[in-house]
Amino acid sequence: MSTHSLHARPRLLATGVPTPDVLERAQREFDLKVWREGDAIGERLIDEAAGFDALLVMPGDKLDASMIQRLPASVKAIATHSVGFDHVDVSAATRRGIPVFNTPDVLTEAVADLAMFLVLAAARNTTGAEASLREGRWGRWAPSHYLGRSLNVMRLGIFGMGRIGQAVARRAAAFGMAIHYHNRSRLPAELERGGAFHETLEDLLPSSDVLCVCAPSTPALRHSLDARRLALLPRGAMVVNIARGELIDESALFEAVHAGQVGAVGIDVFQREPAIDRRWLALPHSTLLPHIGSATREVRSAMGMLALDGLRSHFTGTRASNLLNP
Ligand code: DGY
């Protein structure tokens, strides 16, 4: 990793507009340019990055191996304004000697809060109930209207028991849900907190009245929830996804909802976001959000600061804990 005089501020290209405090710091510590267009920078990054020492990229920017190879030689460090880094080919960056930084930990609780909101929204069909009120369809109170399910009689299956999965488990346990999980490896007892470990996703699914997808998006896990696996859920189970759209085969999920195999969904992430397959918009029993898991003022600010810490560490020759390269 090269060092850089702090007096010659490194040139930083940010492909999205950070929170005001992060922007202010970035302007102080870097010679900053911000891509402010409404659409993602895409392939234009190659030309736009010419002469820049560092990039601050967003989860919607795809920096695959071909893109990384074509980045101008001036680019010496990359930070992504996200904990997920499925959109950045870290191995390709490593081959070019480019360090990559992400934003772990600071968003864990906020994303888990949103997961819990989606579990509740799916279980109580709040989106459908609210629509009926707004559309003037709210009739006389009746015991059989607007029925959902009680969380304290349901089992929550967590697919991916990393930091966010564990934070979801803590919340769901407080609501009285029984916790089941599948993870690459079993957690130590103090982190497992009574949750039941399942060796395989296939084992987890029949025990999931609500399935919460919290796994990282890797090529091996693409479409982990396909038609065959969705059929293993108890009939009428609910599916929540706060991780990445690629983990679920969307067409299979639509079919499962229409067939009643999946009773409700709560979704914050989509396969080709921000483009939304129109079939989502007609999907019954669904609460759909535009990838806002980490979107609190506090968290987005902390993420931006952590990304800048990583970039700065590179230019001051220190080591940052959020470095992704091996
Ligand atoms: C992340 O940081 O990976 C989130 O999905 C972005 O909100």
Percentage of residues assigned to helices: 25-40%
- Give the names of the bound compounds: (2R)-2,3-dihydroxypropanoic acid
What profile does the largest beta sheet have?
7 strands, parallel
How would you state the average pLDDT, rounded?
96
Low-confidence stretches: none
Shape: globular
Q: In angstroms, what is the radius of gyration? A: 21 Å
Number of domains: 2
Question: Biggest sheet, strands in spatial order?
Answer: 8-7-6-9-10-11-12
What is the element string, with H for helices and E for strands?
Answer: EHEHEHEHEHHEHEHEHEHEHEHEH
Distance between the termini: 13 Å
Number of strands: 12
CATH level-two architecture of the largest domain: 3-Layer(aba) Sandwich
Assembly state of the chains shown: single chain
CATH topology name of the largest domain? Rossmann fold
Name the CATH homologous superfamily of the largest domain.
Answer: NAD(P)-binding Rossmann-like Domain
Structural class: alpha/beta
**Top CATH class of the largest domain:** Alpha Beta
- Number of H/I helices: 13
Percent in strands: 15-25%
GO molecular function: glyoxylate reductase (NADPH) activity; hydroxypyruvate reductase [NAD(P)H] activity; NAD binding
Domain D-isomer specific 2-hydroxyacid dehydrogenase catalytic: 19-325
Keywords: Oxidoreductase
Domain D-isomer specific 2-hydroxyacid dehydrogenase NAD-binding: 117-293
Could you provide a short overview of the structure?
The chain is α/β, with parallel strands linked by helices and about 325 residues long. It contains 13 helices and 12 strands.
